[in-house]
Amino acid sequence: MLLVLIGMFSNVLGAFVGVNIGTDVSSMPSASDVVAIVKAHQITHIRLYDADSHMLKALAGSGIEVTVGVTNEEVLGIGESASAAAAWINKNVAAYVPSTNITAIAVGSEVLSSIPHAAPLLVTAMNNLHKSLVAANLNYQVKVSTPQSMDIIPKPFPPSTATFNSSWNSTVYQLLQFLKNSDSYYMLNAYPYYGYTNGNGIFPLDYALFKPLPSVKQIVDPNTLFHYNSMFDAMVDATYYSMDALNMSAIPIVVTETGWPWQGESNEPDATVENAETFINNLIRRVSNNSGPPSQPTIPINTYIYELFNEDKRPGPVSEKNWGLLFTNGSDVFPLSLSGSSQITGNSTTVFCVAKDDASEDKLRDGLNWACGQGKANCSGIQSGQPCYLPNNIKNHASYAYNDYYQKMHTVGGTCDFDGTATTTNNDPSYGSCIFTGSSNSSTGGGALSPTALGPISSRGSTRFPVSKVQFLISAACLVVVLL
C-alpha cells in the first residue's frame, strides 16, 4: 500500500508541505528510484541542496516543483563574477526547464551563521543569479532566495520585540530589499526541536509538538496579547517582526527546513519515534489549514520537512542522522496522519500496548526481559537485523514486546501495565516494515523465530553535541503565562 503524505501535495489555493532531499546516505537510491518514491508518495514540492544533474534529469516530466541549491562553496565565486552566475544558470536551470519544473534557487544554506565570511557577497550573488534569469527570460518562473537559520535573531521571544542581530542589519536589509524587488520570499530554517532542547526547560514539550496547552500554561506575547499555540508559529512570527523592525514588510516566509529526529543517544531523550510522529503529523495539519502566524494570519506558511531519508553519513550525535520520513526502500518511518484526523496505516478499533514516554529505563528493561521470557512474547522482530530492531532503544523494544504479549493474552486476563511502564493506545505504533501485532497490516504478528529473552541493552557512548541548526535562546523573563 502506498502511503500518501497528505499535505505534501499542493492545495491550489493554500499552503503546501514539501520535503528536503539530503544525500549523505550510505545506501542512497538512484535518482530515478528517488523520484519514483517521491511520486509514489504524491510529494509535489522538493528541495535539493545542490543542482544534481541526475536528479534534475530524473525529475523531467514529473511536474514536481523543485528548489535547487547553490552550495555554500559556490556562493563566493558567483558573488564575485556575473559570468559565473550566468554559467551556473545555464548549466543548472536553463538546461532543464521547462521539462523539469524548477521554481526556486536557494543560494547557500544559512550563510550568515555558517559561513559569515561570505556574507558581504551573498546579496551580490543573488543579484547576479537573478539578472541571469532575466536574461534567460526565467525570472518569473524561478525565484531566488537564501535560507537563514533562527540564529540571526538573538531573542525571538516575545516575537513582537524580535530583531535581527544588529551586526547583520546592513546585509539583511539588502537581502530583504532584493526579495521585495524581485517578488521573492524569505527562506527560514525553523527547528522547534532545538528551540525546546536548548531552552533549558522554559517551554513545555507540548508547545514544541503543536499539542494544546492547558489554559494556565498558554504562551502569550505580552505586547500584542497574541496567543501562540506552537513554537513553530512563534519562530515564524519572530521573523516577520524582525523584518518589520527594518521597515520591511509584505515579504512572505517559506519555511525551508523543519522537522524532528526520531532517534537519539541517551542524552537526547526527546528524539523519539513518538515525538517525531506527533510533530510531523501536527505540522502537516497546521500548515494545511492555510493560515499564517498570529501577526500575519492571511499568509499561509509553505513548509519543507527535513528530510526525506535518514542521512546516516552526517557527523555528530545519533539524532543528527535520524530525521528521515522514509527509509530508502520507500516505506515510512512512522504512520502519517490523513488530513489531520486519521492515520493512513493502522486500525482505530484496535487497542495497542506501548511503553510510556516517562517510564524509567531500568523498569522498561525489566518489563522487556519478562515479556520476552516468562511472558512468552515473540521478540524475534526486535533482534538485530530484523524489521523492528531500529530504533535500537529500550522504549521501542519494550513497546514491541509489551504489545505482542498484550495482543495474545488480554482476552485471558493479561494486562497492559508492566509495573506501570505501559499504556494502551488506539494509534497503531507500526512504522516502516515494522508491523506490531494487531495492526491491520499484520496477520499473525511477530516473526517466525521463537521468543527470545533479551538481556540489558547497553546505551550508546555519548558524543559531544554539535552547534545546533537553531539556537533558540530565550529569556525566561519574556515568557508570559496566562492565568485564567
Automatic annotation (TrEMBL):
Catalytic activity line of the entry: Hydrolysis of (1->3)-beta-D-glucosidic linkages in (1->3)-beta-D-glucans
InterPro entries: GH, Glyco_hydro_17, Glyco_hydro_17_plant, X8
Keyword Transferase: no
EC number assigned by the record: 3.2.1.39
Residues of the X8 domain: 351-436
Broadest EC class assigned to this enzyme: hydrolase
UniProt KW keywords: Disulfide bond, Glycosidase, Hydrolase, Signal
Similarity-based family: Belongs to the glycosyl hydrolase 17 family.
UniProt protein name: glucan endo-1,3-beta-D-glucosidase
Annotated organism of origin: Hibiscus sabdariffa
